[in-house]
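REQUEST FORM: STRUCTURE PREDICTION
Request ID: SP-0412
Submitted by: Lab K.M.
Chain count: 1
Length (residues): 259
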Amino acid sequence: MQPFVPASWVEGGDAAVVDVRDPWEYDSIGHLPGAVNVPFDSFRSDEGEAGKLPPRAEWEELLSDAGIGTDEEIVAYDDTQGVFAARFVVTALLLGHDPEKLHLLDGDFSSWQREYETTTDGVDPDPATYESDPEAETPLVDFETVRELLPAAESGDVTLVDTREDWEFAEGHLPGAVQLDWRELVDEERRGLRPESELRELLEERGIVPESRTVLYCNTARRVSHTYLVLRQLGYEQVELYEGSLTEWEDRGGELVTE
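STATUS: Completed
RESULT:
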């Protein structure tokens, strides 16, 4: 799996390009040539499958209307260093799209426009037929699984990673969790990933190593999506997502600690 791709790959390829920003940004500020607009709010659901995933039928309709077919290669971007676009990519993954055909622009719209063309021309895609795969294996774990893993996390046998900010972590986190703000993985100037050597050093310092089973959470599965893709980019194989994250955890009375 190669989640992150450079701008040169996007420009020279034939993948379906998805812009997840608000429509006014897409229309007024501009977008990548040929990109279709699938706003972030259009694929979020408070009532959907597995917590925050949209209902499968709505997802299929959304991608079909955007002209994206079932087997198509997809690359998504935003203008927030990739965190919103990462949620699109992970949504597609969790609903059964081929992970080898899912990518995130390494950077964002602001970094793209420094060197590449943008446009305000409208895009009117030909409708396609998109079918998700309800039988696909995904890295999803649920509330019960995470609760059962807490002793292993506290003993260090499982790495439970909180991808929120320091102050959020201090206010309350899952027992045994280590803190890794997703923004620590991003180069603020380049707006894409930090160099691989820096990423590996940071992760090792936090005890997040490839050999360990790693489970990620945040509040509503947005930030965790970006961190998941970074770990997969680095070759981590045992990475799982707690989709419900703290929103579900607290609603169901899960234990939180502050120390």
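NOTES: Residues 4-112 form a domain with the Oxidized Rhodanese; domain 1 fold (CATH 3.40.250.10).
Reviewed by: T.R.
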